[in-house]
Design a protein that fits this description.
The complex is a heterodimer of chains A (440) and B (245).
Chain A lengths: L2 H15 L7 H16 L15 H4 L15 H4 L10 E6 L2 E2 L12 E4 H6 L4 H7 L9 H8 L5 E5 L9 E7 L5 E4 L2 E6 L4 E10 L4 E12 L4 E8 L5 E11 L4 E8 L4 E10 L5 E10 L4 E10 L5 E10 L4 E10 L7 E10 L5 E10 L5 E9 L3 H9 L4 H17 L5 H15 L8
Parallel strand pairs in A: 1-5, 4-7, 5-8, 6-9, 7-9, 8-10, 9-11, 10-12, 11-13, 12-14, 13-15, 14-16, 15-17, 16-18, 17-19, 18-20
Antiparallel strand pairs in A: 1-2, 3-4
Helix pairs in contact in A: 1-2, 2-7, 8-9, 9-10
Chain B lengths: L1 E10 L2 E11 L4 E5 L6 H9 L5 E9 L2 E2 L5 H6 L2 E4 L6 E5 H15 L7 H14 L10 E2 L5 H15 L3 E5 L7 H14 L5 E5 L3 H6 L4 E6 L2 E6 L2 H9 L6
Parallel strand pairs in B: 3-10, 3-11, 6-9, 9-10
Antiparallel strand pairs in B: 1-2, 1-4, 4-5, 7-8, 11-12
Classes of the chains: A alpha/beta (440), B alpha/beta (245).
The complex binds adenosine-5'-triphosphate and magnesium ion.
Chain lengths: 440, 245
């Protein structure tokens, strides 16, 4: 039985045994989603959007869909993956199961809790009905798959006029309790008018076993709200991640999604922004630093529907060995979206001959009074700069690292949480194999 | 201190240096002049260890030890400094961080601890004042968007920080205005001592009014065709190079 059949045939049991409410709207959404998935199946390389990312080898694994969870995981096992230099709310999931013991949730000024309870409690019915799966549903079989099996994940609901006092960290761990595990976390983030929240998300495999995560996050940003969402992708070499993040923004809001891809076997980021009002700013930042046979595919979409909005997109990639990168940046400026400012930049450095990058900007502009620009560069290390640095006494390896570090630095500069910034800087230095004597 | 023996070097199949002999002692200033394309920058690059050029014959010795097998950074650690004719822009690395790294790498290679931050700051202040450098350049990305003259001044600032044993200044005067030239020359002169040496590559006598050479050499087609005292530079200024070719 292949993975698709396995998934489809376990759906009934999942709904029945999972103690899920079968009368709810959510049940209907699930049913529809599994039908869509059954019709569409996994995307293949014939699909234009998946030309450069081949899921086939991954799908051959005999994944356990509902892994047993490892209760023995304690704080000491996970603390390295938390940014614990800062106060934060934390949502910790172990093999797809929420750990209230390790987490720090709240219902005081805002709700930072789990979607399993939001899906069943009457108190949250309105929020779920208004938001759940309203932007994730656009013809994407992988999000459909996630929707069908939605069970657990973060639920973050910020009322209006609320500055969430500390960042929220969402951590998904897989413990290797079984040899091959598939996880499907589902997050819902709703941020009310004038509110502000910062979120840090991470997927981490604690074992050497194989993990495939198919994650979906929906983010709703209301009038004048500000959301900063940071994704740390530094997983082990047996871990693959398909991450679909959908952002819907109302007027004058600012939403930023930052993606740091340093690890993992295969990572596919689908990042979609929908602008639903005027004077919106959308920021998309990413940096990939890859080696061996790692693969990272950043697929982004910004859909400008209203006048006077902006989008700023900056993706950088450093590829060593036989690693491969994909950047596909689609920007749609609809006819009504006059005075749009859309900027996209994608810069890549190939360190080794075996590394490749496929970069494709895709601008579809239907309005005439707009400023849109895109730039894509693919280069090698600057030999003159290397000699210059060496001649001043900086050893070659360090000079290379320094140049690469500097190359990625403007992406890191955008991080607004200082402790996170230094953590990311460290991860970058680690991945480049250097000890920097200072922070850039 | 530096001994260049029958040095031949080139790139691909092209010979650029065709047998250079030059001996530089501690405490001396040598000027190298010569027409465009005669090989002056190539000579400095080869001494500094640029692997673009292949040395096909001869040797370069520092304190009686050959430099040729050493990487550029190892040569720097031994006290070689090259002020580039065309300094390279390093986006994303500030001048301060760059020079800190360079200094501490040199110290590390010579078995010393990192320079304490306080001392580093003091040194930076001292040397940037010596070169009358605007402090804002220190926090800008190295050479990025600097004017030609600003880049040259920054090279000499780095030289002053690193206190090399042998400094090679490749057309440091080009791009400098008259006031800047005096400041930079003064910076170079401050470094001079009986223990180190300076090689000045220039096309013009003007710089040599401030940094007075003990010897002047004329390079032509990758060979030294004439050497003399400081008067030679004046003579070249009058007569040009034709009489030597
Ligand atoms: N990387 C290179 N590739 C090809 N040719 C080179 C390279 N570097 C130097 N050359 C050639 O070698 C010769 C010497 O060049 P070099 O830069 O050393 O001259 P120079 O004496 O410094 O001239 P200038 O006074 O114009 O600075 C020139 O003909 C130059 O074109
Ligand atoms: Mg030259």
């Amino acid at each position: 039985m292949d993975l698709k059949e396995k998934l489809v045939s376990s759906f009934l049991a999942f709904e029945n045994k999972g103690g899920l409410d079968l009368d709810s709207n959510v049940h209907d959404i699930r049913l529809k989603a599994i039908q869509n998935f059954e019709d569409e199946g996994f995307p293949s390389k014939k699909d234009e959007e998946w030309r450069y990312t081949n899921l086939k080898p991954l799908l051959k694994h005999d994944f356990s869909l509902f892994p047993i969870t490892n209760d023995a995981v304690g704080f000491k096992n996970i603390k390295d993956y938390l940014i614990n230099e800062i106060e934060s709310y934390t949502l910790i999931f172990i093999d797809g199961v929420f750990s209230s013991f390790l987490s720090d949730t709240t219902h005081d000024e805002c709700d930072v809790c789990v979607i399993s309870s939001a899906l069943t409690r009457p108190k949250y019915k309105m929020v779920i009905d208004n938001y759940f799966n309203t932007i994730a549903k656009e013809n994407n079989s992988l999000s459909d798959l996630n929707t069908a099996f939605t069970k657990e994940g973060a639920f973050i609901n910020i009322p209006k006029n609320t500055i969430v006092p500390k960042p929220i960290q969402i951590l998904n761990f897989s413990t290797g309790s079984e040899k091959e595990v598939m996880l499907q976390p589902r997050n819902l983030v709703v941020v009310g008018e004038n509110s502000h929240v910062q979120i840090i998300e991470r997927h981490q495999n604690l074992s050497k076993n194989t993990t495939l995560t198919n994650s979906v996050t929906e983010i709703f940003v209301h009038k004048r709200a500000i959301v900063d969402y940071y994704k740390i992708q530094n997983d082990t070499e047996n871990s693959s991640l398909i991450d679909s993040t959908f952002v819907s923004q109302k007027m004058q809001s600012v939403a930023s999604v930052h993606t740091y891809s340093f690890g993992g076997k295969m990572t596919r980021n689908n990042l979609e922004f929908y602008q639903e009002g005027e004077h919106i700013t959308s920021n998309l930042n990413g940096i990939s630093i890859l080696n061996n046979k790692q693969h990272v595919d950043n697929h982004t979409l910004v859909n400008h529907k209203f006048p006077n909005c902006e989008s700023h997109e900056l993706y950088k990639g450093i590829y060593a060995d036989k690693s491969t990168g994909v950047f596909n940046g689609k920007v749609i400026v609809q006819q009504a979206a006059q005075k749009t400012n859309a900027f996209q930049q994608n810069n890549n450095i190939l360190i080794d001959n075996g590394a490749t990058i496929n970069a494709k900007p895709q601008l579809e502009i239907f309005a005439d009074d707009v400023k849109c620009s895109h730039g894509c560069t693919i280069g090698q290390l600057d030999e003159d700069a290397l000699f210059y640095m060496q001649s001043r006494g900086i050893p070659k390896n360090e000079a290379i690292a320094l140049l690469l570090y500097a190359f990625g630095n403007d992406v890191v500069e955008k991080i607004k949480i200082p402790q996170l910034k230094s953590r990311i800087s460290k991860l970058i230095a680690e991945n480049l194999g250097v000890n920097l004597g200072f922070e850039l | 201190m530096l001994e260049i023996k029958n040095l031949h070097a080139g790139i691909d199949d092209k010979n650029i240096l065709n047998g250079i002999n030059l001996s530089i002692n501690a405490g001396e200033v040598h000027a190298i002049m010569g027409p465009n394309g005669s090989g002056k920058s190539t000579l400095s690059s080869v001494i500094a260890g640029n692997e673009t050029y292949e040395v096909t014959e001869g040797d370069v010795l520092l304190d009686n030890k050959s430099l040729l097998e050493l990487a550029p950074e190892e040569r720097a650690h031994k006290g070689i400094f090259l002020s580039f004719q065309y300094p390279v822009e390093i986006p994303g690395v500030t001048t301060t961080n760059f020079i800190k790294t360079a200094i501490n790498e040199k110290r590390k290679a010579n078995g010393l601890e990192d320079l304490p931050a306080k001392d580093m700051l003091k040194l930076i202040r001292e040397k940037s004042e010596l070169l009358e450098m605007d402090r804002k350049f220190l926090s800008r990305s190295l050479n990025e968007g600097f004017s030609g003259g600003e880049k040259k001044r920054n090279e000499i600032f780095q030289m002053a920080m690193l206190e090399p044993k042998l400094a090679i200044l490749d057309e440091t005067d080009s791009g400098l205005d008259i006031d800047a030239l005096k400041v930079v020359a003064n910076g170079v002169n401050k470094l001079r001592s009986k223990d180190n040496a300076v090689v000045v590559i220039t096309h013009y006598q003007r710089l040599l009014d401030y940094i007075v050479p003990d010897f002047v050499h004329v390079l032509h087609n990758g060979k030294i065709v004439k050497s003399g005292g400081k008067e030679l530079a004046l003579e070249l200024e009058k007569k040009g190079y034709d009489w030597l070719k």
